[in-house]
Each structure stands twice: as structure tokens, then as C-alpha cells.
Design brief:
This protein is an alpha+beta fold and 257 residues long. It is built from seven helices and eight strands, in the order H-H-E-E-H-E-E-E-H-H-E-H-H-E-E. The radius of gyration is 25 Å and the shape is elongated.
Length: 257
């Protein structure tokens, strides 16, 4: 390994050592890798969501099927082509992916699958005009992609832990509800018609399902206290209800107990 390559890999490693938060640093990795390679860099999830991006000011970006905003989705057909790439493809021409040449120059790329434990998590795309990427460039990219894989897996694990915590909180909250209150909560969720928030009329729900209004009110108060719902009275207009813990959509309130 050359001294220059070793120095560049250490710069990438320092991102992890200096990261004192739990926020995944895809943008930071893209930024550093892009500057080191003098290239544009994108990290894309398996769903096609842009997780991180760096655009070199001296390189005209490709926007035919790509996006420039983190959180946006790239073209679905393009993402399918990325997902179909099962091993690193280096110095490939972007025209092979359907992109037009820029000023007669065909951009070259490094496309790397983001895999972990047998699961495809996304794709790292690096592209620029000539010159071709050197062996050291490709090694550095592979190293950076390994860091991205670890960070993405950590993010997935964090999401799974958060989902588990939210489910546990929900079931703990349901234990505090009577059978009638559980059913009332289900009627409220049903009245939102799949929306994350809305205005409900407790008296209308009570009349429709032959339950008391107080049962609905008690259920809403308990679920709000547990952090499951956000509830605010709007007077004669009804009651504003927002779902804070979306695990409620997966429950069959008629059978909980």
C-alpha cells in the first residue's frame, strides 16, 4: 500500500473516530471520498432513496435519472440496474447505464453494491470524466464502501431497536386499557382512514359503535399519556388526533386483551 493511499484511508477512518453522535454520516463520507477522488459520489438505499451525496464543483452532474436532494428517490428503473450489479464495477462507462455523454465525454464510474450479512442494503456510485480511476482509487473506494456498509447496518439495527421499543410501549399502553377502551381506540384509528392525523367527532363514533363518549375520551387520554397519540380538543370542531406511534396500524383492537 502506498503512503498516499494509507493517508487517504486514515482520513476516512477518522470520520468514524470523530463522529460523537449517533447520526449516520453518509454525507460526510461522500464529501470526503468525492474530494479525494475528484469525483461525484452518491449513496443510495436498496429502495432507491438518496442517503448521501457529494457533487464536485468542477464536474457537471448527471441529472437525467438521478436526483440531488438527500431523501429523494432516484429513477426506479435506474435503481433496478444498480441492484442487478452484484460486484464492484470499476471504470465502466456511464453511457452503459443509459446516460448521455457530456460535451462528447463519456463519464466513467465505480459502482459498488452495499451488502451486509447476505442482504442488499444499497449502492455506492462514484463518477467523473477522464482520467480512469487508478488501482489506489478503487482500493480507497472499496474501503469507503465497507465503512458505508457498517454505518448502514448500524442504522438498520438502530431502526429495529427503535421499532421494538415502540412496539413494547404500545403493548404496555394497551395493558392499561379496558376491553371497551381498546375497542374505542380501534374505532378512532379506523376513523382516521389510514391517515397519520385528523379530526374525529367522539359523539359520532360513540353513536356509530354503540359505546359511551367517556370510553373514547378515557382511551384517548391513556394513549396520549403513553406517547402513542397526540390529542387536542378543537371545541365544537371535534378532537384533533395524531398518531405518534404508527405501530397502532398493525393492531387488531378487537382481539387485543
Amino acid at each position: 500500500m502506498s503512503v498516499k493511499l494509507l493517508d487517504r484511508t486514515r482520513k476516512i477512518s477518522s470520520l468514524l473516530h470523530n463522529n460523537k453522535s449517533d447520526v449516520v454520516i453518509f454525507n460526510d463520507i461522500c464529501n470526503l471520498l468525492g474530494k479525494l477522488l475528484k469525483a461525484n459520489v452518491m449513496v443510495i438505499s436498496a429502495r432507491g432513496k438518496l442517503l448521501g451525496i457529494y457533487e464536485d464543483s468542477d464536474i457537471e452532474s448527471i441529472h437525467e435519472m438521478l436526483v440531488a436532494d438527500v431523501g429523494s428517490l432516484i429513477d426506479s428503473e435506474l435503481n433496478e440496474r444498480f441492484i442487478s450489479i452484484l460486484s464492484t464495477k470499476d471504470n465502466g462507462k456511464m453511457s452503459m447505464l443509459g446516460f448521455e455523454k457530456k460535451n462528447g465525454i463519456d463519464y466513467i464510474s465505480i459502482i459498488m453494491p452495499i451488502d451486509f450479512a447476505g442482504s442488499r442494503l444499497g449502492t455506492t456510485l462514484i463518477y467523473r470524466p477522464l482520467p480512469d480511476f487508478s488501482v489506489d482509487d478503487i482500493i480507497l473506494s472499496e474501503y469507503a464502501n465497507t465503512v458505508i456498509e457498517l454505518e448502514m447496518m448500524r442504522s438498520v439495527n438502530d431502526e429495529n431497536e427503535e421499532e421494538k421499543r415502540r412496539s413494547e410501549n404500545l403493548y404496555a399502553a394497551l395493558e392499561c386499557l379496558t376491553v371497551s377502551e381498546r375497542k374505542a381506540a380501534g374505532y378512532v384509528i379506523r376513523s382516521l382512514e389510514g391517515k397519520s392525523e385528523g379530526i374525529i367527532i367522539a359523539s359520532h363514533i360513540a353513536s356509530e359503535y354503540a359505546i359511551t363518549r367517556s370510553t373514547i375520551v378515557n382511551a384517548l387520554q391513556k394513549l396520549e399519556s403513553a406517547g402513542i397519540l397526540d390529542v387536542h380538543s378543537r371545541g365544537k370542531k371535534g378532537t384533533y388526533v395524531a398518531v405518534v406511534n404508527d405501530a397502532v396500524y398493525d393492531l387488531d383492537f378487537e382481539r387485543e386483551g
